[in-house]
Amino acid sequence: MRCPKCSHQEDRVIDSRAARNGAVIRRRRMCLQCGHRFTTYEEVIKAGLRVIKRDGRHEDFDRSKLSGGLLRACEKRPVSLEKLDAIADSIVDELESKFEREVPSQAIGKKVMDKLQKLDEVAYVRFASVYRRFTDVNEFLSAVQGLIEPS
């Protein structure tokens, strides 16, 4: 591993520990030449998921899009970034265990909706308004009514 400061290739591992529920190994390293300390992560490389969009297109699964959607839904809400990262991690884990190669975008949206409904009702309604493509106020009110009076 090259030192990010001096590019020397020899380092020493100071600390190793599991991260992301054991899916990743986090290592603290120290460059033997300049003494700079840095962190690296190791994880098993899996075959990437492909998303089947509503219009039939296929694209690579992008965790940053998932995180961005969660972040937008929870904007100005009392939800920590750590909690959003944990939700994104759990959604990715669920998708990878359920789907081999391709996942419908509706399955991703459903999982996000389920997690947000338990986390924050306002974030849930925000996400639902985009995901379900509300076309009028009545659809929006129906979603809110479903939160108030669960069936």
Feature tags:
three-stranded mixed β-sheet, about 150 residues, 5 helices, alpha+beta
Kindly report the average pLDDT value. 88
Reading side by side through the largest sheet, how are the strands ordered?
1-2-3
For the termini, the CA-CA separation is 56 Å
Rg over alpha carbons: 20 Å
Specify the overall morphology: elongated
Helix fraction bin: 40-55%
Q: What about the largest sheet? A: 3 strands, antiparallel
Q: Helix tally?
A: 5
Task: Summarize the helix and strand pattern as letters.
Answer: EEEEEHHEHHH
Counted up, domains total: 2
Strand residue percentage: 15-25%
Q: List how many beta strands DSSP finds.
A: 6
List low-pLDDT spans.
Answer: none
Structural class assignment: alpha+beta
In short:
By secondary structure, this protein is an alpha+beta fold. It has helices at residues 63-73, 81-98, 105-119, 121-131, 137-148, and strands at residues 11-19, 24-31, 37-43, 50-52, 58-60, 102-104.
Please characterize this protein's 3D structure.
The chain has 151 residues and is an alpha+beta fold. It has 2 domains: 11-43; 50-148. The protein is 44% helix and 22% strand. The protein has helices spanning 63-73, 81-98, 105-119, 121-131, 137-148, and strands at residues 11-19, 24-31, 37-43, 50-52, 58-60, 102-104. Helix 1 crosses helix 4, helix 2 packs antiparallel against helix 3 and helix 4 (121-131) packs antiparallel against helix 5. The protein is elongated. The N and C termini lie far apart (56 Å).
